[in-house]
Structure formats: structure tokens, C-alpha cells
Amino acid sequence: MACSCRDERTKRVIEDVNFRELYRRFQYIDCPEEMESLRGEIPMLPDADGIVTYCFIEEGLGLTFLILCSAKLGADGELIMGPSALESLPRVRFADVFAYAFCDQDEFETVDWSEYEYLKDEMNEKFETKDRIRRMVYDLEMIDGSRNVECPEYVSVVVQKEGLYPEYVWAKCVGFGEKEIYGELLEPPKQAGYGLKTNQRITFQMYDYDDKIYLIWIPD
Fold this sequence. Notes:
Elements: E1 2-3, E2 12-13, E3 26-30, H1 35-38, E4 50-58, E5 62-73, E6 79-84, E7 91-93, H2 94-97, E8 101-104, H3 118-126, H4 132-139, E9 154-159, E10 167-176, E11 181-185, E12 201-209, E13 212-218
Antiparallel strand pairs: 1-6, 2-8, 3-4, 3-8, 4-5, 5-6, 5-7, 9-10, 10-11, 11-12, 12-13
């Protein structure tokens, strides 16, 4: 099956994009270095340079890519797709493909992705979290600029205190208040004067500065 891609130059690198540009979307990942390791695991198109995938968040494992098939880009940028690989639901993790370029589903103008729409419900039911708070965290677009791409419930938070330099730390979002977000600290600040420790519960708020949302720690 051949399908036209508007412009191969629109390919972006997975680790450089907002997770929402990948999450619950289909994409072609250009990863020729991985094809030999996938041989024997999925039906292989001759001269395949990459894979067509559906991205979701597998509970406990972060961003995961379900492999639909092997594929390659033709001379004119068309997507040439191999036989289906879905029989065993093969998957690769973010860490396996983060450095590779990809094309989003919308860059293939003539692909009918509707035949794969059932996968969204299937992956959600089998592998995604059922935790209401976690789903709320994923849905909160205002904090997208602070997210970890691989684990979107992890966010970077600015801590600041008089007499100390401000620092960025990683925290896991675990709940919401009326105006604040609750998190668990994944790593302490380098400066001991903050008095913060790994796994400590912290509170932070969103602040809009220069058209960007920052997450700022609220000391107890």
C-alpha cells in the first residue's frame, strides 16, 4: 500500500517534541538501525527503513509505540507499508526510538487511518492507566511545556528560596487542589538549604511569565 507524504523535510526527532504530538497518534519512525533487531519479530518489508506505529502510555512504562508494520519512504516521500505486524501486538519503548526522526499521521495525505482506530480503545483497555488523577494529569495541556516526554506525569518544577539559587527539579504529579498541584519529588535540589528530599510531597502552582507557563514550588 503506497501513500503520499507531503514533505519528508517535516520529519522531527521524537525526543524534541511535546508528548501530545505523539500520544494517541499514528506515526512513521525512520529507524533503519533498528530493522535488523526487529527481523523475526515482525513481517518485514524488503528494504524497510522504519516502522509505522501507534503511540500510547503503557502504565508503569511510559510512552510506548505499538508497531503496525514495517515501512519505508519512497523516492517521492510516499509511505510504503509492509504486511501487518499486529498479530502479537509488538511494541518498542521511548528509550528505543527517542533519537529517531518521525512523520506524523497528518503528513500522509491519502492514508486512511480509520482502519486502525480500533487500536485506541484496545490499547487503552489493555495497557493504559485507569487512575482518574493520572488521566487528569495527561489532559492538562497548560503544563505541557514542563513535562517529561517519556513519562508525561513527570514535570519540571522551579524551586526558589531566599539566599539560594533557583533550581529545576523533577516531580511526579499526584493530585490537584483548588489552585495548586501536588507532586512527589523525584530528585532533591543540589543545594541542601532547600531541605527537600526524594519522595517528599511538594506543592506547586502555575505561573504565566512572558507567555510561558512555569511550575513554581510553594514552600510549606
